[in-house]
Amino acid sequence: MSVRIGLLSATIMVCLASAGAAWAQPGLANKVEEPYVTKGLTEVEVRGGRLTGGPDGGDNAEIIEVEHGFTDHVSFTGVANFDDGELESLGVETIVNFGKLAGLDIGFYADYMQPVHNGPGEIETKFLFARRNADSEVLFNLILQKSMTSHPGEGDTEVGYAAQATKALGSEDFQAGIQAFGDVGTGHHSAEIYVGPVARLELDESGIDLEAAYLFALGEARNDARGQWRIALGWERKF
């Protein structure tokens, strides 16, 4: 386990060192990833987001994912990305669970997305951190993106983050809290942040999960929109 954590730490340092002065745009249909994987569990999820207000108000994106846990440490997922209802790219992703370190659950996420029309592919990695107890959960993702373009100045590594803190209210099936997506900002660029309330309902008997959030735009994000709606519908079953 110590070797795995050491490799993970080294990878983070190398990626951050190569990041330069780039930043990652907060994705409309992205989610705050968990590092947990369950062997034999298949999950189907549909997520969407829509900007409100500002010059980009009305823009929307959708994602469809089918994930399967092959072990208790590794899952693979097929992904389809849509932009304003049109298929934009297809890809694959994996999550690797490294176990615990200093009371945190640690994981690694990687995906490759290829546009269905002309354009370079994109690699995205996320370093996943979580802390969970009986009635609350805190998640943090450090996000690194890189376009596979050969054009000068367009292939920089971009850095962003996603975070979420939720607590069960009344029962374990309903959780509410706060969610945030953003970038790190640079000397030439103020950070773009979307943050706001999130609620999640888990119907364990049917395997259905529902999640909804409204995130307010902060920083330079307000130049494009005033906020964004997010909604997700998931279904899972263990085979």
Low-confidence stretches: 1-25
Shape: globular
Record the strand order, biggest sheet.
1-2-3-4-5-6-7-8-9-10-11-12
- Rg result: 18 Å
Topology, number of strands: 12
Describe this structure in words.
A hairpin with a 6-residue loop joins β5 and β6 (122-132). The protein has one helix at 2-17; strands spanning 41-52, 60-69, 74-83, 86-101, 104-115, 122-132, 136-147, 158-169, 171-183, 192-203, 208-219, 227-238. It contains one helix and twelve strands. With 239 residues, it is mainly beta. The relative contact order is 0.19.
Notable traits:
239 residues; mainly beta; twelve-stranded antiparallel barrel; 1 helix; 12 strands; disordered N terminus
Write the layout of secondary structure elements.
Blueprint lengths: L1 H16 L23 E12 L7 E10 L4 E10 L2 E16 L2 E12 L6 E11 L3 E12 L10 E12 L1 E13 L8 E12 L4 E12 L7 E12 L1
Antiparallel strand pairs: 1-2, 1-12, 2-3, 3-4, 4-5, 5-6, 6-7, 7-8, 8-9, 9-10, 10-11, 11-12
